[in-house]
Amino acid sequence: MHYKIYILVTCMCAALTVSAQVGVNTTNPNTDLDVNGFTIIEKKLYLEDPGESTQIRGSQLLIQRTDNSIVQYNLDVSKYGPINYAELVLKATNKSGVEDFDTKIPIDPYNVTLQGYYFLDNNNNGTSVITQSTNGDDKIEGFQAYAYKGSTTWHIKVFVNNSIFRVAGNDDIKVDIYINLIIFRKGLLAKEMNAIEVDLDEEVKGTAALPAGF
Amino acid sequence: MPKLLLYITLCLCSFVTYSQVGIGMTNPEADLHINGDMLIQKELIRSQIDEVTATDEEFKLLTRLTNSTPIGEVTYLDPDDLTVAPINIVNYRFFNINSDNLENVDLQYDTGKYVIAISNFQYIGDGIDKGPSNSIGAFVTRVFQENNTWHLEIRNRFLDLAATKSVEYRLTLIVYDKSYYKELPTIRVDLEGNNTGSTSAPENLN
């Protein structure tokens, strides 16, 4: 008789494990499986129907660290984001602009891009700075504002070809250049592709090759 | 009978509150240790999740695959292994240009899949002579959509280089994949001749 009861109890308890809520290190599981502690999954994790996030606020990305732990990507704490923005303000630059500025941002882990700039008179923050060609007042010169790779770090150039920055009545001024840098961390979202050369063959229309894979 | 009660209690304790549990293994190294795959059919909630630290590097973003079998495999994103990354950075050089007129180059990126941004622009070469009344013309640098691909225009629309002069253009295109980058509807505002204005923020961004 006792023997039968023992079997019955065992079966009931066994049934509990497949049908009811299960807790590990907790007597009050709040979900179907509630693990109060660490979980290690040796192989794959599938989330069949995790639900969707419908807002850009109130959520953070998840990352896998080099020790394989999965943690929350708090950008306020992390050294870097996938995409980083910095304003670079170069004060009192030469009237010829910036020939070579070393940002000291290393080449290997980052891609630095210059996505915009403007300039002010260093003397009074005035906006009346113009550029003047040294090849004559009848010339409209092109500008170059870009980030490029030095030996190990990203450098910046900002200048107008064959020109100086000046204001009316004074061709010997210093300027403050305000630069928008967007800095991508490689390996998270961004990837640098091979450069593409486009020979227009003296035509005004043409077609550029796509990078491999597109 | 006390023996039976004790047994029931033990059974319940051992089934409802485990200490360390191993699945597919006898020596679990965590509270729950699964020596194999884990499938969660509904939500995964991590109530006390750790955060990245200030010294962490070389971590990877996680993504959930919608085309795995079973669906929903959690993997990490490695742009170096992808032919097309969420953000692709491509340097371009345009040469043998007709005067200064790069009027329309088909970059061939599908407008349904990508959004393009220009950065690092370089105008390398001779200046353009001013036009009548000292006009400086209008120098344009832009990408635009045409026939479902992205195109590029860089030129002074009204003035040209002198016959013997030449220029080449260099720039960096940032090619964003739309699965990670949302293209919002055009924001179009009539300023009616004023030099200030405002508009409501795009839906969801306010």
UniProtKB/TrEMBL annotation, chain A:
Top-level lineage group: Bacteria
Keyword Signal: yes
Signal peptide as annotated in the record: 1-20
Keywords: Signal
Name of the protein in its database record: Secreted protein
Naturally occurring in which organism (per UniProt): Leeuwenhoekiella polynyae
Automatic annotation (TrEMBL), chain B:
Protein name: Uncharacterized protein
Alphabetic keyword roster: Signal
First and last residue of the signal peptide: 1-19
Keyword Signal applies: yes
Keyword Signal: yes
